[in-house]
Protein: AN1-type domain-containing protein
Organism: Adineta ricciae
Amino acid sequence: MEFPQLGQHCSAKGCNKLDFLPMKCDACSAILCKDHIKYDEHQCSSSYRKNVQIPVCPLCNQHVPYEYRDQSPDRAVSAHIDRDCRSRKREKVYANKCSVASCKQREAIPVNYVKTSSTNHQRNRKDDYALAKALQESERQELQRIRRNQTTSTAATANTSTSSTDNRSCCVQ
């Protein structure tokens, strides 16, 4: 048994589907099913009133007006960029030149080579030599400490073992 009073038929051309939850187009007021509710799917003649997209230029962040009604947003933005975009000039990514006179390499970040004088170089070598000597001395002292600990521990072990053998011989007699 059908219920002809319940639901409505889709008004899209070629559909005529009985829909129990029909939707009404807000532009043309046509009754449509869920498959045809979008403006493009039912060729809505009044969609220009509601379906308005205003593209924004990615360079200058300004709204871009359409030149004509059916123009795509991409073409409108492209035309704007070609003609009257007021974006700031783009900075070069590799604008930093190497600081060595003979080098023509460009870098993303500044690279500066500092030339050290010969006196600074000699002073650094002396500091390095003193540091190496101090390190050697501390390693030598550490080795001596370890050897001392090993000899005292073996001597203590030997003393305890001899005293225990002496006690045994004493007790056995």
